[in-house]
Every structure is written in C-alpha cells, then in structure tokens.
Amino acid sequence: MSKILITGSDGMLGTDLIKHCHDLGYETLALNRKKLDITDRASTKDLIESYKPTFVIHTAALTNVDFCEQNDQVAFQVNGCGTENIAYYSNKVNATVVYISSCGLFGDEIRAYSEHDNVQLKTKYAKSKYMGEQKAIQWCDRYFVVRPGWLFGGNINHKKNFVYNRYLESLNNSSISSAVDKFGCPTYTKHLSTKITDLLNTDYYGTYHITNQGFCSRYDYVKTIIDNMGIKTEVKQVDSKYFIRNAPVPDSEILNNNNLSSKSLGLLPSWESALEEYIRLLKSQI
Ligand SMILES: NC(=O)c1ccc[n+]([C@@H]2O[C@H](COP(=O)([O-])OP(=O)(O)OC[C@H]3O[C@@H](n4cnc5c(N)ncnc54)[C@H](OP(=O)(O)O)[C@@H]3O)[C@@H](O)[C@H]2O)c1
To answer: pLDDT tens across 74-128, in order?
Structure first.
C-alpha cells in the first residue's frame, strides 16, 4: 500500500490534506513541527529512512511574509534548506516529492501568470520559497512543485484562518477595510488536496499552478466572505498602502492553471462556489 508522509501537518493545508488522504485510504504519517523540525537534517534523515514513504507531501514552511522580510536568514533556513533536507532524503528512499510553493513569485502587472512565466521575486518570502523549488528540482528524480492560490480552509483554531478572522473582525467593528489593488485566486485547501492526490496517480512530473478558478481583488474576496456569512458590516475599499507591511508583496498573485489544462487533469471549481462550500462548513462549527 502507498504510504504518504506529510510535513507541516498542523497547518491549514496540512490539516485538510491529512483528512483527505485518510478518506482515500492511504496510510499516512503526519508530522507537525514538534515531531519533525525540517531544519534538523539528522532527524529528517532518520524519520524518512525509517518510514520509507512512497510519497512525501511537503507543506511545512514559514508562511508569515512580513516576518520573512525581516528575518530572511530564518526564511532561507526553513523554506530553502529545510526543503533541501526533505527532498534529499526522500529521493534516497525513492519517494516522489510534492513541494508546496507559493503564488507570490510574480510581479505587479495585473494578469494571470502561467508556469512558463519567468519569476520576479519581490519578497524575501518569495525568494525562500523559490529556493525550495530549486532544491526539490535539484535533488528529486520525481517531483511535483505545486503553486497554490490564496489559501483558505482548515479550522477555526488556525491562527491564520483568513475567512474566520474576517468574520471575527466584522463582528467587532462597524466597518472593515480591504485592498482593491491586490489580486489573486482564493483557493480551498480541501479542493487543492484532491488535485494533489490526483497528481500522485500520474507520472506527469513538473510544476503546476493549482487554484480554484477565477480571480478577484482582496476587497472582492473579503466582501464575498462577509456577504456569505450574512453579516451587515460595511467593507470599505482602500488602497493597499492603507496597510503597513514590511514585505513588498506583488500586486498580482493570479495564476493560470496551464499545466493542469494541457495534461487534461481537470480544473477546480470557481473560487466563489468553493468559498460558499467552506463557509457552510465554518458556520456549522461556530
Ligand atoms: N496560506 C496561503 O495563502 C498560501 C498560499 C500559497 C502557498 N502557500 C504554501 O502552502 C503551504 C501551506 O500553507 P498553510 O497556509 O497551510 O501554512 P501554515 O498554516 O502556516 O502551516 C505551515 C506549517 O509549517 C510548520 N512549520 C514552520 N516551520 C517549520 C519547521 N522548521 N519544521 C517543521 N514545520 C514547520 C508550521 O508550524 P508552526 O505553526 O508551529 O510554526 C505550520 O504548522 C506552505 O508551504 C505555504 O508556503 C500558502
């Protein structure tokens, strides 16, 4: 039976991915940071060599973009060197590696970027995630590099649950603000998980942009969350300069799922229907 090792298992994607892999009947080894710190090369070697996974899905990362901007050595250590540890030892046991990368690897021109576009690494976070991609490609005979859209999903205990946090913010304020000049593809972790396991059943190795279909501004995203939640709080349209940030995040994180299409692997549903589905689930938990 195929065995899947998943890093970052307490994270937003990791949580939904493990559930999905269990549902499909895979044997899984879920590794949170306590069980495996990916920067610890010796522990990474021991865990991978003793479990001998068929697949390794590597979701663990430092994901706070502003923190990474000010602590780039830590970002490179975790997102770059940590990925190298995972990639190197996974390949030694002949595992196929899925490396979860980023949608923030491109620029400010408002358009959809495909896998064939050259990257423009504006932030330290982007540089560290791209370093992770290069390590996966360098060390793995069989790899999938997956660049997802703006992720939502997980549960209300996840500190970075974007949807739940907007809900709380809207309950505590008469109005909330959101940027009209930043664009991306909101993507449900549960849907992304299905596409990741679809890839495992192929030998179409390479790089994939995987998002729910369509794109929107941050403002559209937040407004749709608040409307779906059935809350009357006003959402104000602001320029992104309104939010003081350390990292110069690109204006466009819109991804075109070119490689999924060209290999007839099927596309995910629209971000609006995905968000509706997730908010129905969230409402049943709060
Ligand atoms: N969120 C997004 O919008 C988005 C968009 C595109 C791509 N991605 C990528 O998708 C992946 C999953 O994102 P997510 O939103 O699920 O992130 P998340 O909730 O922040 O989960 C990441 C997990 O990695 C763990 N981690 C951090 N440093 C580690 C280390 N040294 N060793 C082992 N584990 C470590 C974290 O543990 P602690 O909580 O203990 O730090 C956390 O549980 C990441 O690779 C991210 O770069 C995310």
So the answer is: 999 999 999 999 999 999 999 999 999 999 999 999 999 999 999 999 999 999 9
Q: Which protein residue's CA is at the shortest distance from atom 11 of ligand 1?
A: 59
- Look up tokens 């290069």; give the residue: 134
Q: DSSP per residue over 110-136, as a string?
A: -S-B-TTSPP---SHHHHHHHHHHHHH
How crowded is residue 2: how many other Cβ atoms within 10 Å of its Cβ? Answer: 15
Residue 286 in this model has a pLDDT that exceeds 90: no
Which pLDDT score is estimated for 143?
A: 98
**DSSP H or E segment with residue 30:** strand 27-31
CA angle 134, 36, 52 (to 5 degrees): 75
Structure tokens at 9: 């298992």
The response to whether residue 153 sits with its C-beta less than 6 Å from ligand 1 reads: no
Domain extents for the chain?
A: 3-156+187-213+254-269
pLDDT for the residue numbered 91: 98
Q: Is the CB of 185 under 6 A from ligand 1?
A: no
Question: Does ligand 1 lie within 6 Å of residue 184's CB atom?
Answer: no
CATH code reported for the domain at 3-156+187-213+254-269:
3.40.50.720
